[in-house]
Amino acid sequence: MNLNWNVFLLSLISVFYQGQIINVGEQTISYTDNTRERLVKTQVWYPTTDKDVKNTELPFLLPPTVRNATFVNKKHPLIVLSHVTGGNRLSLSWLAIELAKKGYIVIAPDHWGNTLDNKIPEYFVRYWERPLDMSFLLSSFLQDKRFNHYVDNSRIGTIGFSLGGYTSLALAGIQLDCELLKLNVSSEQGRQEFTVPELGDLRNLVNNISCLEVPANLRDSRFKVHIALAPALGLGLPQWRQNITSPVLIIGANDDKIAPIETNGIKYSTAIPSSRFVKLAGKTGHYIFLNEGNPLLQKEESTYYQDDQTIDRRIMHQQILAQILDYLTGHLR
After folding, report:
1. Per-residue pLDDT averaged across 43-51, rounded?
2. Is 248 in contact with 265 (CB distance < 8 Å)?
């Protein structure tokens, strides 16, 4: 599907929803998973008709939201986001805001120990903690009387980026082989994929994982649709088809050096024959899925916020959004 068609599709979807949602409400909440001693700090975006729009204080090029606004009093589909390694609950704010404009409630947790302001090296490789976070967050949100009245429990999906992409697929039922992952990190490909900008080489930490701690199955059937953006950890994926029945969309970046599509996105798609795989063309890198950065971030954090000169991140976001909305519209009914 070419870019012009994606932009056209996005415009059609926008026209379809025009007039239904005026603004986006936003608030921050927290739950504590006492069984694992983990704080799950969470951002919530949602449709609102409140008009007291404040400028966003985030250092990104994002539309303003209405802090602590009232909800539109109806049932909405719910999307749970999982952020990139070393990111945080705000890393996909651009996507959350766009989805909220279209009538979705979106919630995104900080994955404790694996965030920008809370880096604990061990938790950068304890990959199974993230799906557990997502299931705990979903249970907590659906039990929270402040919010559960507005959620359509039959229309719940998950979207994740990078390690969050794996998280989304784990909730669909994808199973990694922990021992295979530990074996493959010793390869040159393993060195490339487990050397991250935030902490450097993580291979020794991977080798120290106790595979007995990894749950046999992290699937959560409450999630009806699973979208993975540049999913990681493909080096731990066995070479056979897996029995995944939920709809799965995988979007990969053509020039991804962090989670190359050949060993990750395409490999996951092969393991899930019913999935749809979309490749972003050109010199699109791994971090194309993050928010746009302001000029200061583009200079000081160029790894995350500066793309190849042939790539316009805003246009790519339009393409990504069009693919996501099309898939959600078709499968989250």
Report:
1. 95
2. no
